[in-house]
Design goal:
The structure is a homodimer of 662-residue chains.
Chain A: E1 4-10, E2 14-19, H1 24-30, E3 49-54, E4 57-59, H2 67-71, E5 74-76, E6 80-82, E7 86-89, H3 117-123, E8 133-139, H4 151-163, E9 169-170, H5 172-184, E10 188-195, E11 200-207, E12 215-221, E13 225-232, E14 237-245, H6 255-262, H7 267-290, E15 297-304, H8 306-313, E16 335-336, E17 349-352, H9 362-370, E18 380-385, E19 388-394, E20 399-405, E21 425-431, E22 438-442, E23 450-451, H10 453-466, E24 484-485, E25 492-496, E26 507-510, H11 511-534, E27 544-548, H12 549-554, H13 557-562, E28 574-578, H14 580-590, H15 592-604, E29 606-608, H16 616-622, H17 635-657
Parallel strand pairs in A: 1-7, 9-11, 12-15, 15-17, 18-27, 20-29, 21-23, 27-28
Antiparallel strand pairs in A: 1-2, 3-5, 3-7, 4-6, 8-10, 10-11, 12-13, 13-14, 16-17, 18-19, 19-20, 21-22, 24-25, 25-26
Helix pairs in contact in A: 6-7, 9-14, 9-15, 11-16, 14-15
């Protein structure tokens, strides 16, 4: 059991239970307790001073905290690590101001949860640990004048007799090693056989019995990040994990710029070698971490979007980006890893999970496999949001997919201070509904550099709820705060002042940024509507909404619903699948039946081309509102909005009573 | 019709009909007319002077023939080309001597004939021109937003709809070319599909309709010679032929020395690259001769002995030569020609016909296919004699094979003046039964350098019949000729004196040579006996005897029977198949059903290992006689022998009467 600590915040009288070792500012954020914090947790603004009234915290040193402060119990919340149960007093200067106007809210359960391994298993049909490669140990009779069949035929006879494998094709490199290997081993060998679906192929021969040592590698080749797992094929367990940026990032942030690069000169070869380089580094990392031999690995399964698969396999991606958006291929044969430049060990073959279309790739096929949608009665919506939003609606009887170009806004692109979710990116934002002051948290608690996707959604949601922006995304310059201001270009909200940012410049959200984000969320929502309406269904019929992808992992579901990115169908229906692409690759590594299932999924999934869909534009335009033109479709948002507005009215009335000019 | 000329030789009154342009000495040889000729047709000895009494010949200039000679009608037979019907007078000095003792013989029909193309067709089951590669012309619908399947799936759909080809696997290089090719061609392409037996594979894509241009290449990879044919797959006809020495010859004359070379250091890679070099030169030659493009070629089928197949494919041949003689493999998958270093054109695959064992290779499988034995009711014996003698006995119901190590004697190895059948090799020999003087003919009519295989068999047969050697192969030193002599090492017969040889040394046949040749012929004959007796059959039950291989092409059947190399079962049963290996490769190129048939032949053929056969040694020892210990098994030889001996007696009596000392 992990140790937990109960933290009581005063004077709010809010408490929360968190893990021992948690950061105190994060705990406050989770408890919905506001502490002024402008520097994202970097410890530079010194605004998040709190008093540890009971219990113990570890304080990171900070020039903003003197020995005298510590003697009086002060700590900087962003620099304090929780060690015991605590009572934390928030001094007046660290509160939003002098007003505590909000009534206590009922605690909101964390919306969405990441499915556990056990939950996954329940979602899948029964499957056996039966990987595409199998090691067969053979103790062969040595040849004689009376039994002088060739080495290859002897091995094939052994495979037939011992493993029931008939008509095995012997790979040339195996044929080449066969004679010496058989004799050096005293006719005692282990043969690795790949079942490609079309044929059985002997891909490796080793001396003695090596059947106890067999691993496979599952890889998710993302546009930004590549993640890999080493799987022990004897136990089916993960023995190592690794991930790294896709080194192709240096040649373009998104698939479109990569495609453009690939179609010029030797660009394709370059991008292929670069992604292979990243994968090779990950494989080295996995093998070293698990302390195995490279030759334990017998196969690799990769999943990724259609462009990533083209670039990895060296296929021309040019027409993926030109209407009518045609990939070179969607199904790919098993290929020798060495043919791609991955010289991991002799006879390792790689399988790229099949794609559905140019913009619904093998990562989605993998996700549908891994999340078990192909096996459920429940009407399920699967969403993977990145530069493109891929969506799949369906159940065990049918699957309908589409993809919308969300643009790079959710990944920080096309947003003035947008950035990827790296160190210093603002990932969580709260805005006080009274004085419109922000509370922010950055990745790794560094001085803020910009805002990443989840931070942007938080930001939009908070700006909208607090009334900094209206339902059209326009900033209300009449608010009594200097955080909103008109500039030459567009009005903006100052999230972090220059004095607290790592860049020494204001970090702002502009109306242009908001417009870009609104277009992105509108495209996703319109896509969902098209899927639902194509089947003559209603949004409320969706029984489960699964969110996949790295972006999804940090997404605050409630905020995403508030801005109208996700449908307002009840938070209990929403779950995170984490990296669905990696999960599908993982399962396909372990079970050839599931790999075949992935092929069936890709083959059977219908793809709706949104740009060819006459209804898309109407849905899209209706979605260019917060949360949506049809507010009645977002009842929880409407209720929250009403609540906040009522509070703000009450506050203004109180301010008026106190003589404060609103 | 070819022009023929009738040549009448005087005083013998023998005539023969030959083609216009034939060499006059050859015509005399064929007519069994003896003209003194020691220099093998080089024009240097000047002994073959004849008088052209009527008709015209073309005389090559020779210092042995003056203007005055020509004015008198003289010609050197070896330098004269027949232009018209002739009456040829053989002057006394060009005759064997002054004695014409042999009665005129009844003309003997040429023993054995080379099967014509029509005869081949009759031997095979009905087969269609249906090569393993097929070109399919596709006019595809261009994609649209409503029909946005991937390029590869579109092509596969086209192949399914237009050619009924389902589940075609698209080769990676094709997948890589697909997008640009489809669009540049306006969706009008030709796809080449390989039917490997296990799967259909799209191996090439070309712009427009190229179906009219499709060729394949059949290759016989011999230890000494590589022969190749270019086949037009639209018509099934041969459009070019080429052959050359296997450049591996520089690394060893026979398979054993090649295997030894291959098993040291990088020997295997070297031998592979060298044979690929020879094949590449032949392909260039074929393509240039036929004036086609390299890319017209869509597949290659090769046949060769098991060692040659190992060396071509880069497989370890080491254990082929070590008891119990095990090859790496006998069945080989289709392999990309480029993987072997043959960069003929994109997507050309090569198939090596399957072998039966280490010493019954794909050349024999091919020969059995080509000669139609697998399809006949007749009990057939198929023989391919080289360093190894491979023999197959059987019919459509069963096939039994064996191989005996004949040693290199028939290829001139282990024989003092033995040589391959190249320029200056004595290829035909007659020995006068009266005075034991030889009449010889060399390849290309050059001064003699040595004796090749067919010449050696001629020589042995003539020495035996004339009594120069006895049935044990011992030279009769008592003969009244200085051509036989005892030396320090072994007795010998002088075939060519130093004054007439190109080497300026005597060309002799020694008792050691004879012993080696006898062992070789005994091994072959004993092998045949084992095959026949294994099936409880008798030699006379053989209904057809097919002789394959380059050696067979020059073999004088009658002489081969005389020495006991071939069974004495009647010359009319014996036929030459020419290059059976090339023929089988040719047929497998044209018809995938026949290629499958070749696989069945190799799989079903039983292999008898002679070294493990208890009866072999007895048969072998019995065969160490001319023609055999059991002379009753060679009735035609016995009759001939009796006839010659009677003539010699008559001659001796006549000499005695004339006072000549015998």
């Amino acid at each position: 059991m992990e140790e937990t600590c109960k933290i009581l915040f005063q004077p709010e009288n809010e408490y929360i239970v968190v893990k021992k070792g948690e950061n105190l500012l994060k705990a406050a954020m989770a408890a919905d307790v506001h502490i002024n914090a402008s520097c994202g947790g970097a410890g530079s603004c010194g605004k998040c001073r709190v008093v540890i009234e009971t219990g113990e915290v570890e304080r990171d040193p900070s020039p903003k905290l003197t020995e005298a402060d510590i003697a009086q119990g002060y700590a900087l919340a962003c620099r304090a690590t929780i060690q015991t149960d605590l009572t934390v007093g928030i001094p007046i200067e660290s509160q939003i101001g002098d007003k505590r106007i909000f009534a206590r809210k009922e605690p909101v359960p964390v919306a969405g949860h990441i499915l556990s391994a056990e939950e996954w298993q329940e979602r899948l049909p029964k499957w056996d640990l039966s990987p595409s490669t199998q090691k067969v140990h053979l103790t062969l009779d040595s040849p004689s004048l009376d039994d002088n069949t060739s080495d290859a035929e002897r091995v094939k006879r052994g495979l037939s007799v011992n493993a029931g494998m008939r008509d095995v094709v012997v790979d040339f490199p195996v044929l080449q090693r066969l004679p010496n290997m058989l004799r050096q081993s005293g006719w005692d060998v282990t043969v690795t056989v790949l079942d490609s679906g079309e044929e059985l192929r002997a891909v490796r021969i080793e001396q003695g019995d090596t059947t106890a040592r067999q691993s496979a590698i599952a890889i998710d080749v993302g546009t930004t990040t590549i993640s890999a797992e080493l799987l022990d094929l004897k136990t089916g367990t993960v023995t190592a994990k690794a991930s790294d940026y896709n080194a192709q990032v240096a040649f373009g942030e998104d698939v479109i710029t990569r495609i453009i690069y690939a179609t010029k000169g030797t660009g394709l070869a370059k991008l292929q070698s670069v992604v292979v380089g990243t994968i090779w580094n990950l494989i080295k990392n996995l093998v070293e971490t698990a302390d195995i031999e490279y030759c334990n690995v017998t196969h690799i399964v990769v999943a990724g979007n259609t462009t990533m698969m083209h670039l990895l396999l060296g296929l021309n991606p040019k027409y993926i980006r030109e209407e009518p958006y045609i990939p070179s291929g969607t199904f790919f044969p098993w290929v020798k890893a060495s043919d791609l430049g991955l010289r991991i060990a002799a006879g390792v073959y790689l399988y790229a999970l099949p794609c559905v279309s140019s913009y619904v790739g093998g990562d989605i096929t993998a996700g549908i496999l891994g999340s078990g949608i192909f096996n459920t009665d429940k009407l399920t919506l699967y969403i993977d949001i990145g530069t493109n939003g891929e969506m799949v609606l369906g159940n065990k009887d049918w699957l309908l997919s589409c993809s919308c170009s969300a643009g790079p806004a959710f990944e920080g692109g096309g947003v003035k201070h947008g950035m990827r979710a790296t160190r210093g990116a603002i990932e969580q934002v709260r805005i006080n509904k009274g004085n419109f002051e922000p509370m922010i948290l950055t990745v790794e608690n560094k001085r803020p550099i910009g805002v990443c996707g989840s931070g942007l959604i938080d930001c939009l949601s908070e700006m909208f709820l607090s009334g900094v922006i209206n339902e059209k995304g326009k900033i209300n310059l009449d608010l009594p705060t200097n955080r909103v201001r008109a500039t030459e270009g567009a009005s903006e909200y100052v999230l972090v002042g220059a004095e607290d940012s790592a860049t020494r410049r204001d970090i702002v959200i502009t109306e242009v940024d908001i417009d870009n984000l609104m277009r992105a969320k509108a495209a996703v929502y319109a896509g969902i509507q098209i899927l639902v309406h194509s089947m003559d269904l209603e949004m409320e019929f969706i029984e489960e909404l699964l969110i996949a992808g790295a972006f999804g992992r940090y997404l605050d579901i409630e905020k995403a619903v508030t801005i109208g990115l996700l449908p307002d169908i009840g938070f209990d229906k929403i779950k995170f699948v984490g990296n669905g692409s990696l999960l599908g690759a993982h399962l396909s590594c372990l079970s050839k039946e599931l790999l075949v299932k992935a092929q069936e999924i890709a083959r059977q999934m219908t793809y709706l081309e949104l740009s060819a869909n006459p209804g898309f534009m109407d849905h899209y335009i209706s979605a260019l509102f917060f949360p949506h033109t049809n507010l009645e479709d977002f009842p929880s948002v409407a209720a929250k909005l009403a609540e906040v507005r009522a509070m703000q009215s009450a506050m203004r009335a109180q301010d008026a009573g106190n003589g404060v000019i609103a």
